[in-house]
Amino acid sequence: MSDFLRGALSGTPADREAKKQQLMEGVRNQVALQSAQTLINKITDNCFEKCVTKPGTSLGGSEERCLGQCMERYMEAFTVVSRAYTNRIAKERQSQLLNTGGVALH
Amino acid sequence: MSAQTDEALEKELASFLEQETAKSQVQSSIHTLTDMCWKKCVTGSIGARFARSEEGCLVNCVDRFLDSSLFIIQKVEEARKQAGGQ
């Protein structure tokens, strides 16, 4: 085991278990945080592009309304794309399994 | 609680990290696809709801992108086989 892990996960078995859970929780949080940050950046880019076509001296009411709706639409698009992507990947994996398994179903 | 050996712990953490890396890569692909398909499909003004056609376009966009990806891999594979004289 690396020195880093040996140091980070030292102590009694209960200690080690708690530290392990903490480490895993930290990694999960980092992954989620990174995805959330990417989403916010993409929303800002795409909705600024769409809603603030001629930047004035301040954001107008209609621009703010557009940004609000755009944000909701973008998150909806993310959900739609996410579902389509995972469905497709599952389908590809299944057909690959059938092919490599040498099972002729058709 | 039974003590976990260093080796078992290391294995568990390695497979956990592999899973999280894979999850992060899938998320990143979905972000790229959403960005790309948003630009292609959401071309009108922003409404309170998606138009039916926009949602359909997003789904088609994902599937056609993956078709394109598979198609290109197949072409490269063919070219590689021909070059190899097999």
From TrEMBL, chain A:
GO biological process annotation, one example: protein insertion into mitochondrial inner membrane
Cell compartments where the protein resides: Mitochondrion inner membrane
Gene3D superfamilies assigned to the protein according to its UniProt record, in alphabetical order: Mitochondrial import inner membrane translocase subunit tim13 like domains
GO molecular function: metal ion binding
Annotated Tim10-like domain residues: 27-86
Keywords: Chaperone, Disulfide bond, Membrane, Metal-binding, Mitochondrion, Mitochondrion inner membrane, Protein transport, Translocation, Transport, Zinc
Claim: Transport is one of the keywords in the record: yes
Membrane topology: Peripheral membrane protein
Family, similarity comment: Belongs to the small Tim family.
Subunit (UniProt): Heterohexamer.
Domain-level remarks: The twin CX3C motif contains 4 conserved Cys residues that form 2 disulfide bonds in the mitochondrial intermembrane space.
Protein's recorded name: Mitochondrial import inner membrane translocase subunit
Automatic annotation (TrEMBL), chain B:
Biological function: Mitochondrial intermembrane chaperone that participates in the import and insertion of some multi-pass transmembrane proteins into the mitochondrial inner membrane. Also required for the transfer of beta-barrel precursors from the TOM complex to the sorting and assembly machinery (SAM complex) of the outer membrane. Acts as a chaperone-like protein that protects the hydrophobic precursors from aggregation and guide them through the mitochondrial intermembrane space.
GO CC annotation, single: mitochondrial inner membrane
Keyword Ribonucleoprotein among record annotations: no
SUPFAM superfamilies associated with the record: Tim10-like
UniProt free text on domains: The twin CX3C motif contains 4 conserved Cys residues that form 2 disulfide bonds in the mitochondrial intermembrane space.
Quaternary organization: Heterohexamer.
Membrane-protein topology: Peripheral membrane protein
Keyword Transport appears in the UniProt entry: yes
Record keywords, A-Z: Chaperone, Disulfide bond, Membrane, Mitochondrion, Mitochondrion inner membrane, Protein transport, Translocation, Transport
Protein's name in the database: Mitochondrial import inner membrane translocase subunit
Subcellular localization: Mitochondrion inner membrane
Family designation: Belongs to the small Tim family.
InterPro entries xref list: Tim10-like, Tim10-like_dom_sf
Classification via Gene3D superfamilies: Mitochondrial import inner membrane translocase subunit tim13 like domains
